[in-house]
Amino acid sequence: MKKELIHPDHTYEEGHPWTSKLYKEDENFQSICLQASKDDGVYKTFKSHPHYTKVLEHVKRHTGEEYLERIKSNFSQLYNQNAFSKFIENDKIGTPHTFIKSEFGDISATTLRYINVLGNLITHFNNLDGFHISEVGDGYGGQATIISRIFKDLTFTLSDLPQCVPLLKKYLKEFNITPHVVTSNPNNNNIEVIKDEIKCDLFISTYALTELSLKRQELYIDKMIRNADRGYITYNETDGLNLRGWEQVLTKLGKNIKILSEEPLTSQYNKIIIWGHEEN
Hints:
Layout: E1 2-4, E2 11-13, H1 21-25, H2 27-38, H3 40-43, H4 50-53, H5 61-74, H6 81-87, E3 100-102, E4 105-107, H7 109-125, E5 132-136, H8 142-150, E6 155-159, H9 165-173, E7 180-182, E8 202-206, H10 214-223, E9 231-235, H11 243-252, E10 258-261, E11 271-275
Helix pairs in contact: 2-9, 5-7, 7-8
């Protein structure tokens, strides 16, 4: 059975998997996440394992260099020895490819992506101290790690595949972060399935949310986004709602949304959707 989306040009199949095709098709990715959570030998190098980099930790060198230049030009408060020494801690676990040269040391392109997002968050929302942050599609928790290097007294509700959650918890424990973790997938791993509404100061999803099926998107809209005072979504056109659909849904929820260009642009139709931002 097919259902029509808000934008009539797009439909979805009932029962479509919860996330991107890569997550669904690549059982090796899920396997390496579980192995890394249990085996310290695998954990030591998981970020450069080919099964992992097929899905995550695959930002290209040229894109990483673009992130670095943008951080230098736009986020001076983040481009200094003190801040970068904290950010580079993210690359000391998991053996990522640190092929980007900065004046403060070698750094991975993926960590630079997280710093670029942090710079955008500061630009639009200013001080995040004391925020409760909800994020969908956390991977190993890199974005939460980078945000917590700069801001204090943060709490997190994080959601990802059940197979990713043990690694997420293990990784964040390295940085003294103990998140509330939920999933939208029924599972046998004693991981809480999201049922209740979750209030947060800031909702984040970079790429992941817009890769979900409509059914899963609606769940997160109802349980997380509805109660988020502020939001930051990197939209990439895949399954589920298209850009017009997101605009209509968020406006109906009373969000004062703004749609921005992604900088640097990593795919033709990508956009940044924000709400609750400070007007500049």
